[in-house]
Design a protein that fits this description.
Layout lengths: L1 H15 L7 H5 L6 E7 L4 E8 L3 H4 L4 E7 L8 H4 L3 H10 L7 E5 L16 H8 L5 H18 L2 E9 L1 H12 L4 E7 L15 E7 L5 H13 L4 E6 L5 H16 L1
Parallel strand pairs: 3-4, 3-5, 5-6, 6-7, 7-8
Antiparallel strand pairs: 1-2, 2-4
Helix pairs in contact: 5-10, 7-8
Amino acid sequence: MQRKMNVKRLFLILLCFLPLSVRPSDSIGISREIIHSQWYSHNEHIFRRVDIYLPAAYDTCEQALPVLYLIHGINGYEGSWVDKGAAMDTLETLVALGRCQPMIIVMPDCNKWPFKERPVSHGNLWRCLTRYSKLSREHEIEYAVSDLIDMIDTTYTVSFCVIAGLSDGARMAANVANKRPDRIHAVGLFSPVLHKDQIPKDSTQSFSVYVGKSDLFIVSGKRFHRRMNKAHYPHRWVVMKGNHNWRMWRRCLSDFLEELSD
C-alpha cells in the first residue's frame, strides 16, 4: 500500500512540471521565426518596417505559396497582428486542423507617421484621431504597399496574393486591391471605415466584409454593402456578434482564412 501511495505521489509531482497547454507551433513544428525587415517607399522616400512570417512548409513545398497581407488600424504598427491579432497562432491552428493551407503572412507598418515621428511609441489612438485630418499620407502608404508587393514577389516564391485590413486599414486594403488587381486575388475588410464613393473596380476579386453588431462603424460597412449590391458586385457579407476591437478581428481573420481555402 505504501509503495502504491509513493508511485501516485511521484506521478502528481511530475504533472506539476508538465505544461498546461501546448501551442500548435510547439507540437507539430509548423512555425518559423518572424523575419523583421524593411522596404523602401518610393513616394515617401523612406524605409518602412515589415514583419514577414514564413511557414516551415516554405522550405519543403515544391509549389509556390499564397501570400496574405495584413494591414493594421490607424494607431497600429508592423507587430500589431502578431502581438494583438494572434495571426500566426490562428493560421497555424487552422493548418494543423486541415482547414487552411500554409501561406506567407506579410505585416507592414502602415502608420501614417514614420516610426520616429509618432506621438508615442506605436502611436496612440486618441492623439492619432486628433491629428488624423491634418495628414494626407494614406495614398502614399497605399503606393508603398504596392512597392512591398513587388518586393515580396521578387524575394519569395509566391502564387496569388490576398489582403485584409481592419478599421482604417480596411480602407487601405480596399484601395491597394484597386491599385493591384493584377496581384490581389481576394480582399477581407474587418470593421471597415470606408469613403462614401469607395467601390471595387475589378469584379474578378473576391470581397468579404465583416461588421460587428455593436461596432461603432457598422454604418460604414452597411453603406459599402449597399453600394456593392447596387453595383451587382458579388461579395460575402458577414454580421457577427462583436465590437470594434481585437477580439472580433481575431474571429474575422479565422473565418476569412477558412473562406480562402474553400
